[in-house]
Design a protein that fits this description.
Its EC number is 3.1.3.25. It is an enzyme of class 3 (hydrolase). It is built from eight helices and 15 strands. Helix 5 packs parallel to helix 6.
């Protein structure tokens, strides 16, 4: 049902990724909202994505990270209940320092629920894609969340933002598995969906950081919830664009254990 939308998102992500790579030789940085890094490539990549989407889906709404004066860009739908949610470069801090761990994240929400999602890593050419009831794929190969527990060689991605300090339960997890932080929430979620990592903890993130990843996790057989264990959907994308989210994504084997570690 949403396969056409996935194709649109994949093309847009590849075009934006090519633009991001082409701008690496002359990066110019500035700041928005106090301390958030933005580069000249962020709005350029976003424009490419929006142009591609609106060419095919002119009635759909759009929420994108890079609006004017540090605000969110919100283009309401015209008679549609569909919203595209865009992060042109997730991991801008990495990108600005030429650390090649960043991604393009594009999601479609229909009726308040994820319907299609793409996360693309231009540096590695990894294309993660999913559509409602269509499965999750990495470069054309079907992938699933792992069925692994918390084991010495398993990996859990943690956020870099902990305003009140890292909970003791998470500190204890450090002694039982490998913790990682790649600097891109979208990539963390994609690797959980692909079975490479077992869980991902998301703090103070916005809807464009996790929207595509939510589709990937769902279709890969995992769980994505608020950190109190409640479901994140349905949600109103426009309202959600104004708030921060604290989430946990994982395979179904360890979800409750990670949630418990967060509140310990």
């Amino acid at each position: 049902m949403y396969s056409k939308d996935v194709r649109i998102a994949k093309k847009a992500a590849r075009l934006a990724g090519e633009k991001a790579l082409s701008e690496l030789g002359n990066i110019k940085t500035s700041f928005k909202n106090g301390n958030e890094v933005v580069t000249q490539a962020d709005p350029l990549c976003q424009e490419i994505i929006i142009d591609e989407i609106t060419r095919h889906c002119p009635e759909d709404g759009i929420i994108a990270e890079e609006g004017e004066d540090g605000n969110v860009l919100v283009l309401p739908p015209k008679g549609s209940r569909r919203w595209w949610i865009i992060d042109p470069i997730d991991g801008t801090n990495n990108y600005s320092r030429r650390v090649m761990l960043f991604s393009v994240s594009i999601a479609l929400f229909d009726g308040g629920r994820p319907a299609a999602g793409v996360v693309y890593n231009p540096a590695s050419e990894e294309m993660f894609e999913a559509s409602l009831n269509g499965g999750m794929f990495l470069n054309g190969i079907r992938r699933f969340c792992s069925e692994e527990g918390v084991e010495p060689q398993s990996m859990i991605a943690i956020d870099s933002c902990w305003p009140e300090g890292i909970p003791q339960g998470i500190v204890e997890l450090c002694t039982k598995c490998k913790l990682r932080n790649f600097g891109s929430t979208a990539l963390h979620l994609a690797y959980v969906a692909a079975g490479s990592m077992n869980a991902c903890i998301v703090n103070k993130n916005r809807i464009w950081d996790f929207a595509a990843g939510a589709m990937l996790i769902q279709e890969a057989g995992g769980r994505l919830t608020y950190q109190d264990g409640t479901d994140i959907v349905p949600l109103n994308p426009k309202t959600a664009s104004e708030k921060n989210f604290e989430l946990t994504a994982s395979n179904k084997v360890i979800h409750n254990r990670v949630l418990g570690a967060l509140i310990s």
